[in-house]
Write a structure and sequence with these properties.
Layout: E1 7-17, E2 26-42, E3 47-53, H1 66-78, E4 83-89, H2 100-115, H3 122-137, H4 145-150, E5 153-159, E6 162-166, E7 173-180, H5 186-191, H6 199-218, H7 221-227, H8 234-237, H9 244-253, E8 258-261, E9 268-273, H10 275-292, E10 296-302, E11 309-310
Amino acid sequence: MTKESDCISVFAPATVANVACGFDVLGFALEHPGDEITVKKTNTKKIIITKIEGAEDLPLDADKNVVGVAIKALLQELGSDQGLEISIKKGVKPGSGIGSSAASSAGAVVAVNKLLKAGFDNTALVRFAMEGERLASGTAHADNVAPGIFGGFTLVRSYSPLDVVKLNTPKDLYCTVIHPQIEVKTSDARSVLRISLPLKKAVVQWGNVGGLVAGLFLEDYDLIGRSLEDVIVEPIRSVLIPGFDKVKFNSIQAGALGCSISGSGPSIFALSKGKATAEKVKKAMSEVYENFGIEYIVYVSKVNPNGVKEI
């Protein structure tokens, strides 16, 4: 019989990364959907993934699964050979663009940190979870795992050394996310990006990142809206998402502050002031894919201030 102290379950939220102008540095956590991860201590000295509900194509081999890789990074730094058994219930669909691999990676390291009383701080946990992202996409980016672990909005000020800043979240800020049922792999979405860009565009993007961060702290919704502009990544990646331009236009017409690609897509997010507007945006987004005949899932959520939590 497993003792309560030998087992832990956590909820790990979906996340929106980039947030228009902040490629690889900005992100925020959603209240739903999310993954549920259960970790138990064992005497095997092995990391064993017993089952994955909701995404049966994902590998159970711990060396090929983001959960196993992230946990092993933590155990290696801890100097521990503790055996662990993990079960995963996926609520964030792989390839959705709302941080599927990040939810699992973030949830796993937070769970193990608590279970083993390892004492790692949130920045260290982000670093371990990034190894899961490296496996999933080829790049150890933190813009999903950071808000998943810290909660709310986060800014990755630096990757070397890793420096994550938790930002303010205005209380009336809501997010609407639509996930058309097509897949855009993160690795493919990264492969279309340009290595260099004109200084003029970079200046516009820097201004928008600064404006968005300032808007969040000032709780200036108009400034947030003006800053939700991506002149670098969105114009290239949006061609991979059918109906993107129409969804964006409809969302703004319905009252959204701004609208852009969530992560690498195909999900599209919009931020709004107030739930009523966010629900109008949901209807406006849905109509696009109804007309296209493409199946979709749509969520309306407040920004999750807590990130991964024990359940």
